[in-house]
Design brief:
Largest sheet: 5 strands, parallel
Strand content: 15-25%
Radius of gyration: 19 Å
CATH class: Alpha Beta
Helix content: 25-40%
Structural class: alpha/beta
Strand order of the largest sheet: 5-4-3-10-9
Number of domains: 1
CATH topology: TIM Barrel
Distance between the termini: 44 Å
Number of strands: 10
């Protein structure tokens, strides 16, 4: 049970990916993320000083089992995203990038056209591209065709904690995808993460729900356990849902 997840040339024992925003201190971020056992942690380029190896965030994430995933949060176009990715590759020495292009500051919804354009260019430049997108099955297939290594459809708007509001579309994406599907954004409770894993998501990415909880360390552990339970349930195959009651014990031959 709990088979390892492979993305590009890396394997992950943990299917819980985490973010670094909104923690009240760098030390709390560090201890919480260690408690989550996450092996892939995304960090916004705009929040770090990429010229400073002793940057407060980066120095706290200097752990052998942690892979940093720079993201392009804050960019508004494909051109800006490609520039940010090249900057991160040079500064952080990784060709992995979480592609985020959301020009609307109110809802932070991803721009599908600019994301597809940027993904195609970044793949040509040799990046491992992990695009944050709306739960759009058609767009997911287009991204797969241009060579991204996974897709990251949202469950609900970033930071909303509303859960899997796009569930019907996530089901279609998971059914059709030939690359890992990582549900990103909107997951606000461990039960949301478990549900995503139960329907067949390959991983989830969680940030706000851990960082702004009253006890981020305990919440990180709760998410870890929920993701493991959800994955185990998926691999064990859930029982089918039926419209009518079906007794779990024989209804005859007891008092007759």
């Amino acid at each position: 049970m709990n088979q390892k997840l492979k993305i590009a040339d890396k394997e992950f024992s943990s299917r819980l990916f985490t973010g670094t925003g909104k923690f009240s201190s760098s030390e709390l971020m560090r201890t919480s993320l260690l408690a989550s056992k996450s092996e892939l942690i995304t960090v916004a380029l705009k929040r770090v000083d990429v010229k400073d190896k002793e940057d407060d965030i980066l120095s706290h994430l200097n752990q052998s089992h942690i892979n940093l995933l720079p993201n392009t949060s804050g960019v508004r176009t494909a051109k800006e995203a490609v520039f940010a990715a090249e900057l991160s590759r040079e500064a952080l020495e990784t060709n992995w990038v979480k592609l985020e292009i959301h020009p609307d500051p109110r809802y932070l919804l991803p721009d599908p056209i600019e994301t597809l354009k940027a993904a195609e260019e970044l793949v040509k430049l040799g990046f491992v591209v992990m695009p944050y997108i709306h739960a759009d099955p058609v767009l997911c297939k287009r991204l797969e065709e241009v060579g991204v290594q996974c897709v990251m459809p949202l469950g609900a708007p970033i930071g909303s904690n509303k859960g899997l509001k796009t569930l019907d579309f996530l089901d279609i994406i998971i059914e059709q995808s030939n690359v890992p599907v990582i549900v990103d954004a909107g997951i606000g409770a461990p039960s949301h993460a478990a549900h995503a894993m139960e329907i067949g998501a390959d991983a989830v990415l969680v940030n706000t729900a851990i960082a702004v909880s009253q006890n981020p360390i305990a919440m990180a552990k709760a998410f870890k356990m929920a993701v493991e339970a959800g994955r185990m349930a998926f691999e064990a195959k859930l029982a089918p849902i039926k419209e009518q009651a079906e007794a779990s014990s024989p209804l005859t031959s007891f008092l007759s």
